[in-house]
Amino acid sequence: ANGLMAGKRGLILGVANNRSIAYGIARALAEQGAEIALTWQGDALKKRVEPLASELGAVLAGHCDVSDASTIDAVFETLEKQWDSLDFVVHAIGFSDKDELTGRYVDTSEGNFTKTMLISVYSLTAIAQRAEKMMVNGGSILTLTYYGAEKVMPHYNVMGVAKAALEASVRYLAVDLGSKAIRVNAISAGPIKTLAASGIGDFRYILKWNEYNSPLKRTVTIDEVGQSALYLLSDMSTAVTGEVHHVDSGYHTVGMKAVDAPDI
Ligand code: NAD
């Protein structure tokens, strides 16, 4: 294949359907010649992921529930049988109980706090541990975060705390893996209507707020996140690591509501 990703092989975790950010990234990478492996979480999503994998010519790497480490091991065993090395990983996974993505952060339960951190934060490190062994020629690891890590967003609650820890993990992993030429970065995406986002209270309001108040006066698409991911996962960014790159129509630069923004 030709393209920026020709000869590169990578694992993408987090495709649920054709609206997933992970799917936008997978498509951008496949167009540039990458060889991709996809996982799914449970049988219900398997039915959705399989046709997308065949469309992209992707390897089926199996069921992966990151809260069960044996399923992560199984994915890497499958990869090791097919590929002798790995060049990139996309981690596009997040979870929190919907009942706590509304109301007040202060009411977060211990159980959901722990589960949110395990699935949304620790999983990046668990995957990096296994990927390190296969990234014999160096590599690039990418995760997805949100501005709610930096500033308080309505209803984002425990997920904001988790994303802050995820962004710190990116920096610690970047240092630990840098000597092996393995880079670790995050894309901080603006709000996009996906399955995961539908669990967040008043999400439509948040989308409109970003549209009216971002410098570009619009929201972002999964294809645009995909194009930025292409930069971070390809040799276009060989000197970039530990970075949180905002793909949010510039929203994070703004300090105040636009004076001409309509009421929502
Ligand atoms: P999505 O629902 O399409 O993807 C979320 C994925 O997480 C799904 O594929 C789901 O199967 C997976 N997942 C959840 N729990 C898991 C577990 N225990 N084991 C394995 N996989 C699990 O939604 P999305 O918006 O594309 O989310 C992808 C990432 O992007 C998430 O980290 C999310 O926080 C982040 N993000 C989303 C937005 C947005 O507005 N949609 C903005 C910024 C960042």
UniProtKB/TrEMBL annotation:
Matching InterPro entries: Enoyl-ACP_Rdtase_NADH, NAD(P)-bd_dom_sf, SDR_fam
Binding site for NAD(+): 14, 20-21, 41, 65-66, 93, 163, 192-196
Pathway involvement of the protein, from the record: Lipid metabolism; fatty acid biosynthesis
Listed PANTHER family: ENOYL-[ACYL-CARRIER-PROTEIN] REDUCTASE, ENOYL-[ACYL-CARRIER-PROTEIN] REDUCTASE [NADH], CHLOROPLASTIC
MF GO annotations: enoyl-[acyl-carrier-protein] reductase (NADH) activity
Keyword terms: Fatty acid biosynthesis, Fatty acid metabolism, Lipid biosynthesis, Lipid metabolism, NAD, Oxidoreductase
One Pfam family linked to the record: adh_short_C2
Reactions mediated catalytically: a 2,3-saturated acyl-[ACP] + NAD(+) = a (2E)-enoyl-[ACP] + NADH + H(+)
Listed name of the protein: Enoyl-[acyl-carrier-protein] reductase [NADH]
Leading EC class: oxidoreductase
Active site: 146 (proton acceptor), 156 (proton acceptor)
Record organism: Aureimonas fodinaquatilis
Source superkingdom: Bacteria
Biological process according to GO: fatty acid biosynthetic process
EC number, as in UniProt: 1.3.1.9
